[in-house]
Design goal:
- Pfam families: DUF1540.
- The protein contains no helices and 6 strands.
- By secondary structure, the protein is mainly beta.
- The protein has a domain of about 45 residues.
- Strands 1-2 form a two-stranded antiparallel ribbon.
- About 5% of the residues are buried.
């Protein structure tokens, strides 16, 4: 199965591309309560954690851990 299209409006992210699309190979979405915690694993320099699970109360309780500020 191919990955679904991921839309993103954060234009200063390294993985943002025209049309508000995300071109990251791996996307890690986390609950806000964990947003400042270091991630134990990496794939191609992107942090992700495949060992734990959480529950979110709603959309405002989640954030994208894949964000990397664009430097160019």
């Amino acid at each position: 199965m191919e990955n679904p299209m991921v839309k993103c409006s954060i234009a200063n992210c390294e993985y943002w591309e025209q049309g508000n699309n995300c071109n990251a190979e791996v996307i890690m979405i986390e609950v806000n309560a964990h947003s400042n915690k270091p991630q134990p694993e990496k794939l191609d320099g992107l942090p992700y954690d495949s060992e734990h699970q959480d529950s979110a109360g709603g959309i405002t309780d989640t954030c994208c851990q894949t964000f990397e500020e664009r430097t160019h």
